[in-house]
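Entry 12.
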Amino acid sequence: MKRRIFCVLTALLVMLTVFSGCNKNPHADETTTLAGEGGSDIVEENLTTTRKPVSNEKLIALTFDDGPHKTYTNRVLDILEKNGATATFFLVGYNIEKNVETIKRAANLGCEIANHSKDHKNLMKLTPEEISEQVGGPNELVKSLAGVDIKLFRAPGGNYNGVTDKIGMPLIQWSIDTEDWKYKDAAHKGRSEEQRNADLKKIADRVIEKADKGDIILMHDIYGFTADLCELVIPGLVEKGFKLVTVSEMYKAYGKELKAGEVYYSVDFASGNTLVVEPGQYRVKTKGSVLNIRTEPKAGAESLAKVPNGTPLTVIECNPGWAKVQYNSVTGWVNTAYLEAAE
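Predicted 3D structure (tokens):
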């Protein structure tokens, strides 16, 4: 009798062991080892260097004009690479052929190559044929020499009025101007090292303080001063929680389309806004970026003026999501999401 009971108990024990093994997660030990209780983090750890930006991140786009420059552009690329960041480089045609390897390096690091015209001429003073040459030349040259397709354009000096329909690409402006060109070493030959460092810190502090998600920051990668400025700005923005991406990546991640012939200063998060305000006195509330007064009540319409945060405006008319305002001698439309009633 005892022997029969022992055999039954042994059989039950074997069955329980097999059943438990069949239902055991074969990756349970691995999950605990690699990611603790939150095993879902395993995938994230394996993809951190290659994953695409997502819309809930604080994305911002650094842009560099007038290059490339063999020395200074590569210094900027060193800093970007060190900080896990990318940027968009708006190239001028006469700097392309002598810097092909630098262009390839930027593209291989995930940076975006864009067009800043062939000869940096004011497009507003050119014929349609001349504009076509200024735009098409760099596109063809970069494609043939570096194998890179260019999708974005920035007009020299930001001068695009009346020529947007002749570009054939999205026109990228900026919401934060570092004004780094004003502080280049050639313009401050008598400046001491202490004064130069003070200028670097002043600009970096201002940029980092003003920066908001969706902003486009303007710099120039042809100056040693700018390369030094990047040593402060890039890690400073990263430390503040921003992910530095290309212009195209930023707009795609935020679900915004870049359209040929339209002008972009920063990501417009107010698209679809239907807020209606009453006529009266208001202030701009942009969290650091400028507010564009546009010719029409729609995103991408031509900008008449850029109004700093906190500036008072007078609303004289309103449509759902848009207000017609008076600012000094300018009358135009702004998005109501960027207005707050004046006290």
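Annotation: Residues 5 and 125 are 102 Å apart (CA to CA). The chain has nine helices and 15 strands.
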